[in-house]
């Protein structure tokens, strides 16, 4: 029986643990945090990923956890509504796509892996063949190791080399944090667009508060929270709408998140007995809207190829990569294209975009127009045929 260590109790990591156990392997998950990470922003499950969660028997439960965002609107600096549409169209969701909180999905997947060994509060320090040494000093032997530990993957650094070889900065930063729902939003999303910077605020069915999200062009990088908040505040100096008030909330936010928008580009996602999945291998950035779906599908395919190869990683790892790479490339291309529409570079682009949105909002066929706009998202989300392993 193949013993497989998974680094990261992420969506990718817990999904992989589920399928490995289903196929008769023995997974162990190590997670740096002391418990499953709660909270987080809202995420989408689209296309092929819906098939994965349906095969896990989780689709109906996921639907019961949907955010139920009803409307999405674009506002100008004075707070006037420029355009409005239903929440699914605004979020690029079609057919049966589902949106829910990341923390709800992570918790659901963790519950589905009840009985799997989890090592919380620890991390991999070194990998030497089948021997793994942990930061805690624990030494264990595993047949295979899979890194599912995100954009800044420790496993990738240990097995493949420094982060700067693979992480490609897209020239934008992102910050998300909880704020009071001072506008009294009820399952609504509001977006304000300025030159080189976008801000949005949303409320969901399960949350009495709200989440603020900021996307802006920037080459400034920072690790310390105080420096990150200084950079964010300076980037939005002079912004209209509710931006100043939203920024006031970041100092006390318990879930303040800040990072660069980046993609991971690698020639290979496996080296010896180590493989990577999810953001660790092929982060497409939040701009793609497909990170969660890539994680779910990648975990399913890797586990399935290991089953098909009876645990022989020399056959399974290349097969996993061959099946996944076209899907990954389609969704990474989606991310690089989307960000240019999400963050307008110049005041002229902002003005023209607002004019177009006002015009489209008045047209009787605006729903059909929006369907064409979101079609590339659906096409990328379904750009893989999932085998039944």
TrEMBL record:
<dbReference type="Pfam" id="PF01494">
    <property type="entry name" value="FAD_binding_3"/>
</dbReference>
<dbReference type="GO" id="GO:0071949">
    <property type="term" value="F:FAD binding"/>
</dbReference>
<dbReference type="InterPro" id="IPR002938">
    <property type="entry name" value="FAD-bd"/>
</dbReference>
<dbReference type="InterPro" id="IPR051704">
    <property type="entry name" value="FAD_aromatic-hydroxylase"/>
</dbReference>
<protein>
    <submittedName>
        <fullName>2-polyprenyl-6-methoxyphenol hydroxylase-like FAD-dependent oxidoreductase</fullName>
    </submittedName>
</protein>
<dbReference type="InterPro" id="IPR036188">
    <property type="entry name" value="FAD/NAD-bd_sf"/>
</dbReference>
<feature type="domain" description="FAD-binding">
    <location>
        <begin position="2"/>
        <end position="329"/>
    </location>
</feature>
